[in-house]
Amino acid sequence: FSEAFETSLRFAENHTSSLFETAYRAMAKEAAEPVKELFTDLSLYILGAETTVESAVLRFFDSLFPLVYSRLINPGITDLSEDYTECLRLTRQDINPFGHYSKNMVKELSKSLWASRMLSQALSLGIEVINTTEHAALTKECSRALVKMQYCPHCQGLTLIRPCVGYCLNVMRGCLASVSELDAQWREYISTLEYLTNEMAASHDLEIALMGIRNSINEAILHAQLNGPQLSATVDKVCGQPKQEEGNLSSDNVVPVKEVTETQRFVMAHTSLNNKRREFISYMKRSRTFYASIAERLCDGDLVMRDSSTCWNGEDVV
Prior knowledge:
membrane, glycoprotein, 14 helices, lipoprotein, cell membrane, mainly alpha, heparan sulfate
């Protein structure tokens, strides 16, 4: 799943970068870093880092506004000093140049990334539980019972006689009593995984939300361009007037977006992840009784005598 998340993020990042390379070439090179930082932040969020989708998205738009303002709204600006850039970043938070599109993007991503983040954390917890119980300590009483079950028949020369099924179950259940107590919590854990995978595949679909970032950014930029004069007037009051090149360089600011023909590749990747989800939850459902049935699993096979009327009951051959 971690690999699938990372693949979806990289795919969406390339899809988003293509927006600037095809529609906003004037700022494509400078926009590459903010785009990269956005998807890095989203990746860290899914992996459980102490961050939020809102902070990642708003930080991206803070970095984007100076580029949009100086390359599209006022392409004649030549003096884009650090102080002026920082002023534009801070002004973005007050004048909201991207309208409701930035908030909508936060809303859509928060839904889908939450389910992915929770699933990622839940799987990490499951691994921790399994790794811990894999090395469960045996008590002295358990060790004595296991020796008695496995080797006491040898003292009578009965090396081919194996334990009776009922005897094996009694010994194993006694040895694994503490582990079997995890049964109720494990069942609840499996149900939680099922809920989270269903959430991811339903209205909170990760891949679709990530692929929608490109269009959200485009709509936000177009909104800012259409309100360019008002934004310029406000920015001039707050940040002052930067140096301008002579002549009108603001023609053809709005560039039509060329859609990238990646639909087929995206659908294939999307289908693959959905199949992985279904296979995974189907597999996990089969392990719902794992901790309750460990004794039965251990006593099912070569350890016990199943197809014979002769077996060892702990005291004698019966």
